[in-house]
Amino acid sequence: RSEIITESTQLKVSDLKLSDAGIYTCEYDSHTVSISLHVFKLTISLDGHFLTNEAPELILMQNSSHPLPDLNIIFFNSKNNTVRPKVIPNKARQEYVLKLQQLEAKDSGTWMCHVHSDSPLINQNISFDVKVLGFQNPDFERQYAAVDSTVTLSWHLNFQKIKWKEYFTGQLNWKQQETAAAHELLDFNITEREGQHETKKSSHFRFEIPESKPKSTIAVKLHKIHLNHSGQYQCQLVYNRRSVTSKIELVVMKVSANPVGPLRRGAKTTLICQVSHPLPSNAHLRWERVNGTQTDIMMSKQHEAKVEVNVSAAGLWNCHLIEDNDRKISLNYAVEEAPVWISYVVIGASIGGSVLVFGLACLCIISGISWQRRRQRAKTMARARQYLLENKTCQCQQ
Known about the structure:
The longest helix has 51 residues. The model has no long low-confidence stretch (mean pLDDT 87). The protein has 1 helix and 27 strands. It folds into 3 domains: 132 residues, Sandwich (Immunoglobulin-like); 110 residues, Immunoglobulin-like (Sandwich), CATH 2.60.40.10; 77 residues, Immunoglobulins (Immunoglobulin-like, Sandwich). The chain has 398 residues and is mainly β. A hairpin with a 2-residue loop joins strand 3 and strand 4. Helix content is 13%, strand content 46%. Strands 14, 16, 17, 18, 20, 21, 22 and 25 form an 8-stranded mixed sheet that branches. A 5-stranded mixed sheet has the order 6-13-12-8-9, with no helix packed on it. A 4-stranded antiparallel sheet has the order 5-7-11-10, with no helix packed on it.
């Protein structure tokens, strides 16, 4: 593993090992020159291949012919930002265990370990590669959609950006509530040779896999969604029996009125704004009338999934879903005033209906009286016939 470069009188040692540390002496005529070689070895857990939220552990070892110095160790991540690890040295200073915080997908790249000592003077940089496989999405996000709309839920993987050549798999599950059973919608596998392949697993849940989605993306498209489409959509990535998960919570919103239809003069209707399940503490629903006043505002209480407002006049109303003072989704409902002739028709129908009911009542009374009289006459005739039958026999005198 060594060679002498005669032109410059240099000794070249390749593939250094810790055991190569020591004192190297060059003798030329009556001249002697000695050099002390200090060797470092840095190893990283999992061979530098991590999933998001995993915390790397590194081991720095040193060897020298002189007493081993106390080292000061800092790291520079792929963005050249300083990272100070938790350092656990052993008593002999031969080995330092270095623990980093949990990684994010953006941490992928070349890192630098800087080793410093004042005596002897050491300023050594050791570079190493870190690859973090995962989602560019956050671990958890919330997405809002209106009833009957079309929504696409997407998870963006970063394996192409980091040139990940390893084989990994994953699946997409859905459950309507946190405590409900999960239903597998699709699974996928990704290899360097075959690329990305997805397979639908659910037949009763209606969705499609978009054809024109970007590369390195797992996505599902839901058409004409309803309240039952809400819930948690969980995409799980599995590599070497380890996994990482990203969740999207779909919240579905709906507005309606009771009763439905144009508002007659003097009548009232109730506007209803609801979401698929109770909102978190930092979110609420709010009805407000367009160009209205503060009195035309109705807000939901904390953790409520519905808010109602009573309306007695025509106008346009908006229901907003607000999270942390940010409007996530808004739906409007137009309350229309019924034409005057409809009111007259309703009044006429009411009067006509009353007259009809009164007439039917009178007819029923007259029919009842007539039936009662016929029944009475029938009873009288029956008694008369009975009387005649009993008295028709003649009594003859002997």
